[in-house]
Specification:
heterodimer; A: 7-stranded mixed β-sheet
Chain lengths: 848, 38
C-alpha cells in the first residue's frame, strides 16, 4: 500500500467523471504540493484525498476554478463554499469525448424528435439546442430520432428551441414508455406513409396514363379547363400526402435553414407552378412549351413517401440489439418482506430486499446470494456459454437466468443501477454517438442544400440562354430534377445507421463500446498492450501441476484438498477448486493448523499431514531431493510448488500458478493474424513475465513495471507512431486505459478500470479484443461504403439532372426518375448498414 | 427584354440564396459555435 492510499478524503467535488477530469484536478492542485501523484480522486464518491499539509480552502478554490465545484469535508476548514459562479457545470474540453458522454448523467435531457429526415435537420436541431442558455453539448441521433442536450435543466426551453426550428420534440422521461410509444408511433407512421404513397402514386400514375394514352399532356384550348381542374386536384393530393414536406421546408426557410424537405418542396412546387401557368395562360408560352408536369409532382411525393416508409422499417431492425437487452429484464420479483412472500413489480424492489428465485426464473435485480446455491446462466450479459456456479456470498446480476437450484438473495443494486440497466444505457449512448467521420458528413451536408439550390438556378439559366427550344420547358425540368435528385438524406443516414448496427453487434459479442470514436479507432489499432494479471491470466491461482511420488495424483489431491479446505488462502482455494472440478472426494483431515509463511498441517489417520513450502518442510527434517526437478519446472513456468508430506514420507508436489486463460493464446493469435503487434506489461518479475509471454505467444514484454509507468509505456508507444490499445482490469491500469487510443477494460475487473476504458469486454476472455477490432473494421468499411455511395450518387446525379449529358447524348433526366433514384439511395444506405447484422467474428467462423 | 428579365431574376435569386443561407443575421451569436466546439 502506498502512502497515498492512507490519505483521507478532504474535499467533496462534483462533475468529475473520468481520468481526464482526475488529471485536470491534479494539475489544478499542483501549486500546493510537490507531488501531485499523492492526490487521490475518488470518482465513485466524488471526493479528493489530500496530504495533511495542503490548505483545504485553497485546494477547494483551485479545484472549483478548474471546473469541479469543491467543498472541504473538514468542518474547521469549511470557510470556503463554492460561489454560485463555481457551480456552473465544468466546461467540457480536453481530449476525452467520453468526458462529455459521462458528464451527461447529471444534467442531460434526452428528447424524442419528430420530423427530422436528413443530415441538415440534424445540424439545425443541434444548433437550436446549443443556442439554449446553459447547453454545453448537443447531439442528435437520426437513426433513432433522439436528441441529447447537456448542461440545461430547462426541458421546456429545449423543446421550444427545437419547435422553433421546425421540428417536434418531447422529453423522454421513462425510457421504457418512450420505447413503446416510439414503436407504436413508428408502426402508425409506417401505415400513414404507405397510404399517402398509395394515394399520391395512383393520382400520379393515373394522370400519366391518361395523358399519354390520349396524348393530352400538352395543354390545348379543348383540354385547358380539364387540366386546370386536374391541377387543383394535384394540389390537394400534394398537400394531403406531402404536406409535411412543405411545412417543414417553410419552417426551415424562416430560420435560414435548408434541408431535404426544402429540395422536395421546391422541386415539386416548381413543377406544379409551371404546369399551372401553362394551364392558365397557354398562349403566353410557345407551343412546344405547353406541356404539364402535374403527374411528376404527385409521383415524386409518392416515391419519397415509399422510400421513407421502407427506411422506417429498416431503422426499426437496427435497434434490435437494445430491444433484446431490454427483453432480458424480469417484470416482477418475489420479495420476502416481514416474513411474507409476494410478487412485486421489479421497479418496486428496494435495496436490501430479500428475493426468492426458483429454477428457470430470471433474476430481477443485482444482489448477493444469502441462501442456497445454484448455477446461473450469465451468457446474456457476458457471452460466457457455461452457467456459473454460485453460492452464498456470490454476486448475481439482473437479467441472468437461474438454471438449477432455488436461492434467496439480497438486492444490492436496483432500477437503473443494475449492471444490465447500465449496459443498456452504454449501448444506447454509444449508438447515438458520432464518430469523427460522421461529423464530417454533417458539416458537408449543412452547406449542401443551399449549394444545390444555386446549382438548380444556374442550370436553369444555362438552359434558358443556350438550350434548345422549348427552352422554358428544359429550364424547368433541369431545375426541378436537380432539386429532387440532390437529397442529402442518404448522406445523413450513412454514419448513424452503421454505428447503430455496429455497436449493437459488438454488444452481442460482449464488447460494450462507449463512444462512436472508439468504434472508429479500434479498427486502426497497430499495437495492443496487455496487462498480465487478470487479463492474459486468470487473475487468481489455479493448480497447474500435480506430481505424486507413487503416481496416484488423485489421492494426493484428495489429501491436499482435505487439509486446505479449512484454509482461506488463495492457494488453498485453488487446490480445493481443483478437487471439486475433478470430482475427487476430499479426505477427512482433523486438527487443522495454519503456520503463516510456511504452510498448513493437520491430522490424517493418526499421522501428521503437512502441506507447505520447501524451506519449512526441509526445516521439519524431510528430504525433498526426489521432487527437486519437478519443483524447478513448476518455478520455471511462473508457478509456486507446494509439497505434501504424510508423517516423514514425501507424497508429492502440487504446482499452483496464475495460469493463462485457456483462450488467451488463441485470442493473441487472432490479433497477430490481423497484423497487430502484441505487448505485455506486468509488475511481476522478469522470469514469470518471460514464461507467460512465451506461453501466450506474445512478441514483446516489459516486466517489473510500476503501475504509474503503464501509462508512460502507452504514451511512449503512441509517440513512436503506433495506434495503441491498452487492455486491463485493475485500478492500476486505469491511467493507461485512459491514455491509450482505445482502452479495453475486462468486465470482470474493477469499476474504475471500466470507467476509464472506452470499450468494456463483458466476457473475461481476451477474444473480445479481436472481436471488437473486427467489428470496428467492418463498421468503418460499411460507413465508407455508405458515404462513398451517397457522395457518388450526388456527384453523378446532380450533373446528369442538370443536363450535362444532353449536349452529347441528348439525355435529360425526368424529375420522376430523380425522385425514384433519391428514394433508392436512402434505402440502399439503410440496407447496406443492415448488412452489418450478418457480421461474424473470425472465431465464430472457425467454430462453424 | 424577356431574356434580360429572366437572367436578372435568376442572378438575383442566386444572390438571395447566398445571402439568406450563408450570411449570418446580425443577431446571431457567432461565438456560440466555437464555444461548443470541443
Amino acid at each position: 500500500m502506498t502512502e497515498a492510499q492512507k490519505l483521507h478524503p478532504a474535499l467533496t467535488i462534483s462533475g468529475a467523471s473520468c481520468q481526464s477530469c482526475v488529471k485536470k484536478i491534479r494539475t489544478a492542485l499542483e501549486p500546493l504540493t510537490s507531488d501531485a501523484e499523492l492526490i487521490q480522486v475518488d470518482l465513485d464518491n466524488q471526493t479528493v484525498a489530500l496530504p495533511d499539509t495542503i490548505d483545504l480552502v485553497k485546494a477547494a478554490r483551485l479545484v472549483s476554478d478548474a471546473g469541479y465545484p469543491a467543498t472541504p469535508i473538514d468542518d474547521k476548514a469549511a470557510g470556503y463554499r463554492p460561489s454560485k459562479a463555481d457551480s456552473i457545470p465544468p466546461k467540457i474540453s480536453g481530449p476525452a469525448e467520453n468526458s462529455t458522454e459521462l458528464m451527461a448523467e447529471s444534467n442531460q435531457i434526452v428528447l424524442s424528435v419528430t420530423g427530422a429526415t436528413c443530415a441538415s435537420c440534424v445540424n439545425t436541431i443541434e444548433k437550436a439546442l446549443k443556442s439554449v442558455s446553459g447547453v454545453t453539448h448537443a447531439h442528435m441521433n437520426l437513426a433513432d430520432n433522439t436528441a441529447t442536450a447537456i448542461g440545461s435543466d430547462n426541458p421546456q426551453a429545449l423543446i421550444s428551441a427545437v419547435e422553433r426550428s421546425g421540428y417536434g420534440a418531447s422529453v423522454i422521461e421513462n425510457e421504457d414508455e418512450a420505447d413503446q410509444r416510439k414503436q407504436i408511433q413508428d408502426q402508425k407512421d409506417y401505415k400513414t406513409l404507405l397510404i399517402k404513397m398509395a394515394v399520391s402514386l395512383s393520382v400520379g400514375v393515373g394522370l400519366m396514363v391518361w395523358g399519354m394514352a390520349f396524348d393530352t399532356m400538352t395543354v390545348t384550348d379543348a383540354n385547358q379547363s380539364t387540366w386546370l381542374g386536374l391541377g387543383l386536384l394535384t394540389l390537394v393530393v400534394m398537400m394531403t400526402t406531402g404536406g409535411h414536406f412543405y411545412t417543414s421546408a417553410w419552417k426551415a426557410f424562416l430560420h435560414r435553414n435548408a434541408n431535404m424537405d426544402t429540395l422536395i418542396a421546391l422541386g415539386t412546387g416548381t413543377a406544379w407552378l409551371y404546369s399551372m401557368v401553362v394551364s392558365s395562360v397557354p398562349d403566353a408560352l410557345p407551343e412546344m412549351a405547353r406541356h404539364v408536369y402535374f403527374e411528376a409532382s404527385a409521383m415524386i411525393i409518392g416515391l419519397i413517401n415509399l422510400g421513407q416508409a421502407l427506411e422506417l422499417r429498416a431503422k426499426g431492425k437496427t435497434s434490435e440489439a437494445v430491444r433484446r437487452l431490454l427483453d432480458l429484464r424480469a417484470k416482477t420479483a418475489r420479495v420476502l418482506r416481514n416474513g411474507e412472500e409476494r410478487d412485486v413489480p421489479v421497479d418496486e424492489v428496494l435495496k436490501g430486499d430479500h428475493i426468492r428465485v426458483r429454477p428457470g426464473e430470471k433474476l430481477p435485480v443485482d444482489g448477493v446470494i444469502t441462501e442456497g446455491s445454484t448455477r446461473i446462466d450469465e451468457s446474456m450479459l457476458t457471452g460466457e456459454p457455461m452457467p456459473a456456479n454460485k453460492g452464498e456470498g456470490d454476486k448475481v446480476s439482473a437479467g441472468t437466468l437461474n438454471t438449477h437450484g432455488a436461492i434467496i438473495y439480497e438486492a444490492t443494486h436496483v432500477g437503473s443501477e443494475t449492471a444490465l440497466a447500465q449496459i443498456i444505457q452504454l449501448v444506447k449512448k454509444a449508438q447515438g454517438s458520432k464518430p469523427a467521420i460522421g461529423r464530417l458528413a454533417d458539416k458537408i451536408s449543412s452547406v449542401f442544400v443551399p449549394a444545390v439550390m444555386l446549382i438548380a438556378v444556374a442550370a436553369a439559366l444555362v438552359w434558358y440562354n443556350v438550350g434548345p427550344e422549348p427552352a422554358v420547358v428544359h429550364m424547368m425540368i433541369a431545375a426541378t430534377t436537380v432539386l429532387i435528385i440532390a437529397c442529402p438524406c442518404a448522406l445523413g443516414l450513412a454514419t448513424p445507421m452503421s454505428v447503430m448496427v455496429g455497436v449493437g453487434k459488438a454488444a452481442e459479442y460482449g464488447a460494450l463500446i462507449r463512444q462512436g470514436d472508439a468504434l472508429q479507432t479500434a479498427g486502426k489499432l497497430t499495437l495492443v498492450i496487455l496487462d498480465k494479471t487478470g487479463t492474459i491470466t486468470e487473475g487468481h491461482p489455479t493448480v497447474t501441476r500435480i506430481y505424486a511420488s507413487n503416481g496416484d495424483g488423485q489421492k494426493l489431491l484428495a489429501l491436499a484438498a482435505g487439509i486446505e479446505q479449512h484454509s482461506e488462502h488463495p492457494l488453498a482455494e485453488a487446490i480445493v477448486k481443483k478437487a471439486e472440478s475433478e470430482g475427487v472426494p476430499v479426505e477427512k483431515v482433523t486438527g487443522f493448523e495454519v503456520l503463516n509463511g510456511k504452510g498448513v498441517k493437520g491430522d490424517y489417520q493418526g499421522q501428521i499431514l503437512r502441506l507447505g513450502n520447501q524451506r519449512w518442510l526441509e526445516a521439519e527434517g524431510l528430504d525433498l531431493a526426489s521432487l527437486g526437478t519437478v519443483a524447478r519446472e513448476i518455478t520455471g513456468a511462473a508457478g509456486t510448488p507446494l509439497f505434501l508430506a504424510l508423517g516423514d514420507k514425501m507424497l508429492g508436489v502440487i504446482g499452483v500458478a496464475d495460469a493463462i486463460k485457456p483462450d488467451s493464446k488463441a485470442a493473441i493469435d487472432r490479433l497477430h493474424n490481423a497484423g497487430i503487434r502484441v505487448m505485455m506489461v506486468t509488475g511481476d518479475v522478469d522470469a514469470t513475465a518471460k514464461a507467460i509471454a512465451a506461453e501466450a505467444g506474445i512478441d514483446e514484454y516489459r516486466a517489473e513495471v510500476l503501475p504509474e509507468d503503464k501509462a508512460k509505456i502507452v504514451n511512449e508507444m503512441r509517440s513512436k507512431g503506433y495506434t495503441v490499445a491498452m487492455v486491463g482490469d485493475g485500478i492500476n491500469d486505469a491511467p493507461a486505459l485512459a491514455a491509450a487510443d482505445v482502452g479495453f477494460a475486462i468486465g470482470t475487473g474493477t469499476d474504475v478500470a471500466i470507467e476509464s476504458a472506452s470499450i468494456t469486454l463483458m466476457r473475461g476472455s481476451l477474444h473480445g479484443v479481436p472481436d471488437a477490432i473486427e467489428i470496428s473494421r467492418a463498421t468503418v468499411k460499411n460507413i465508407h461504403q455508405n458515404l462513398f455511395g451517397a457522395f457518388v450518387y450526388n456527384v453523378l446525379g446532380i450533373p446528369v439532372a442538370a443536363g450535362l449529358l444532353y449536349p452529347v447524348w441528348g439525355i435529360l433526366m425526368s424529375p420522376i426518375l430523380a425522385g425514384a433514384a433519391m428514394s433508392l439511395s436512402s434505402v440502399t444506405v439503410v440496407t447496406n448498414a443492415n448488412r452489418l447484422r450478418l457480421f461474424k467474428a473470425s472465431t465464430a467462423k472457425e467454430q462453424n | 427584354m424577356g431574356t434580360l428579365l429572366v437572367n436578372t431574376a435568376g442572378i438575383l435569386l442566386m444572390v438571395a440564396i447566398v445571402w439568406w443561407f450563408w450570411v449570418p443575421p446580425a443577431t446571431a451569436d457567432a461565438s456560440k459555435d466555437t464555444q461548443n466546439h470541443h
